[in-house]
Specification:
alpha+beta, 6-stranded mixed sheet, 3 helices
Length: about 130
């Protein structure tokens, strides 16, 4: 399992490196032991955090109230908890293998998770 995510019961814990004020929202790949994300929101008055939570809410099909910033509210290094995600985007769980563009992230299908990821959940992505 990559170092940038882990499970606490049914909750997904993600360790992220955020690049705010980017030209698009996208998963870039891995930065050290963190998932590197680019988001369009500026790092001003909590806008980047709000945008990140809204984006992840769509990606993981989870209510915004189920996504919490555990560490790093004021910095680029963030640790997030996603409570019982309904969908697991494949490109996030496989970012160590492949960096995906926004167009790849939008495409995909629903597939049951295999191996050590998390049984009973679904993930989206290209094959």
């Amino acid at each position: 399992m990559p170092a940038y995510y882990s499970w606490q019961g049914e909750d997904l814990i993600l360790h992220c490196h955020l690049q705010p004020k980017a030209s698009s929202d996208e998963v870039v790949g891995v930065h050290g032991d963190r998932l590197k994300l680019r988001i369009t929101a500026p790092p001003v008055a909590g806008k980047a955090n709000e945008h990140l939570i809204k984006w992840f809410s769509k990606l993981f099909k989870a209510p915004k109230s189920d996504i919490e910033i555990l560490q790093g509210e004021l910095g680029r290094q963030k640790t997030l908890r996603i409570r019982s995600p309904k969908v697991l985007p494949e490109y996030i769980l496989r970012a160590a293998d492949v960096a995906c563009s926004k167009t790849q992230q939008g495409a995909g299908c629903m597939v049951k998770l295999k191996s050590n990821l998390k049984p009973g959940f679904f993930f989206t992505g290209d094959f």
